[in-house]
Automatic annotation (TrEMBL):
EC number: 3.2.1.4
A GO term for molecular function: cellulase activity
Protein family according to the UniProt entry: Belongs to the glycosyl hydrolase 9 (cellulase E) family.
Record keywords, A-Z: Carbohydrate metabolism, Cellulose degradation, Glycosidase, Hydrolase, Polysaccharide degradation
Residue intervals passing through the bilayer: none
The keyword Hydrolase is assigned to this record: yes
Protein name, as recorded: Endoglucanase
Catalysed reactions, as listed in the record: Endohydrolysis of (1->4)-beta-D-glucosidic linkages in cellulose, lichenin and cereal beta-D-glucans
Domain Glycoside hydrolase family, first and last residues per copy: 1-335
Catalytic site: H265, D313, E322
Organism: Rhynchospora pubera
PANTHER family, sorted: ENDO-1,4-BETA-GLUCANASE (PTHR22298)
Length: 371
């Protein structure tokens, strides 16, 4: 049905042990509290919500998708340890309370979150794995505040791991294949690749901003030194591919460019507003119709092409035509990170507003000596 026509009950699912979900919500509210810090009352409300949720995530352990729930079919969570590191990092930035930093930099926590495992999905930031985001975020803390002991050891590890992840995104390295058209295959040829690509483009662009702001001209991959600019180039080529610079000359963002998907897997876009109230099953004829969508869902990024740069603009095949919140979140982040002037650096201070000074302030100089 059209979302505007929904007249059937939509029951919520209640969970009592869902650490991953609660810690992720805490991370979102904590990050938002920094964005809205000038609105003190609202910002404090966000911090309060984040604190409550994070405590709940730590006290009642469990995966939100355990036990064959609906969530396990669509977005099955593999673990909650990465959300503990990610949530803990944002909680520290939102509150300045060092107990959160202790948690986020606890070596056992990092180990459980998979910081030392490697594996095919290492360095892939996604709805299921926040570790890469946390590694980049904590590298920012080390680059700009350098908190030192007792956090330094794991922060240095995360910083080194972030460097290795950034190397893995470069075409010179073989951790990930690329399509003939140049799209990085972060999910190793499985369908719906773009959500992972935009996240990597965002992290690469933002990490290059960190290095620039720290007056660091580049970083090492093994014995070779790479200038920070190659990270921006990586992000740009990937986003340009998505916006139409690909073998099919197809923009995968609906409403952008001359050629974009017209059969998007999205009920609001595919069911016409024609005065007819289609019931729950009545809308299926529009899902299966060969006609282009009557409504344009402008700005929605679809799931993307296959590993051969091929794309089928077919509504019923969600592996090609489905837009998601997870994908669009990363797209917006990547576009923001790449927009603006080359020299518009990252704001070094605002994110640390709540963090107390790391070291005591030096005493004032003595008064001039009078004989």
């Amino acid at each position: 049905m059209r979302p505007e026509d929904i007249d059937y009950p939509r029951p919520v699912t209640e969970c009592h042990a869902c650490s991953d979900l609660a810690a992720e919500m805490a991370a979102a509210l904590a990050a938002a509290s920094i964005v809205f810090k000038d609105n003190k009352k609202y910002s404090q409300k966000l911090v309060h919500g984040a604190t409550t949720l994070f405590k709940f995530s730590r006290d009642q352990r469990g995966r939100y998708s355990a036990g064959g729930s609906d969530a396990s079919f669509f977005y099955n969570s593999t673990s909650y340890w990465d959300e503990f590191v990610w949530g803990g990092s944002w909680m520290y930035l939102a509150t300045g309370n060092s107990s959160y930093l202790q948690l986020a930099t606890n070596p056992t926590m990092a180990k459980h979150a998979g910081a030392f495992w490697g594996g095919p999905d290492y360095g892939v930031f996604s709805w299921d794995n926040k570790l890469t985001g946390a590694q980049v975020l904590l590298s920012r803390l080390r680059l700009f505040l350098s908190p030192g002991y007792p956090y330094e050891e794991i922060l240095r590890t995360f910083h080194n791991q972030t460097s290795i992840i950034m190397c893995s995104y470069l075409p010179i390295f073989t951790s990930f294949n690329r399509t003939k058209g140049g799209l990085i295959q972060l999910n190793h040829g499985r369908p719906q690749p773009l959500q992972y690509v935009v996240n990597a483009a965002f992290l690469a662009a933002v990490y290059s901003d960190y290095l620039e702001a720290a007056d660091t001209p580049g970083w090492y991959c093994g014995p070779n030194f790479y200038p920070t600019g190659v990270l921006r180039d990586f992000a740009k080529t990937q986003i340009n591919y998505i916006l139409g610079k690909n073998p099919r000359k197809m923009s995968y963002v609906v409403g952008f460019g001359n050629k974009y998907p017209k059969h998007v897997h999205h009920r609001g876009a595919s069911i016409p507003k024609n005065g007819v109230h289609y019931n729950c099953k009545g809308g299926w004829k529009w899902r299966d119709s060969k006609k282009p969508n009557p409504n344009t869902v402008v700005g929605a990024m679809v799931a993307g092409p296959d590993r051969h740069d091929g794309f089928k603009d077919v509504r019923s095949n969600y592996n090609y035509t489905e837009p998601t919140l997870a994908g669009n979140a990363g797209l917006v982040a990547a576009l923001v990170a790449l927009s603006g002037h080359e020299n518009t650096g990252v704001d070094k201070n605002t994110i640390f507003s709540a963090v107390p000074p790391m070291f005591p302030t030096p005493p004032p100089p003595p008064a001039p000596w009078k004989p």
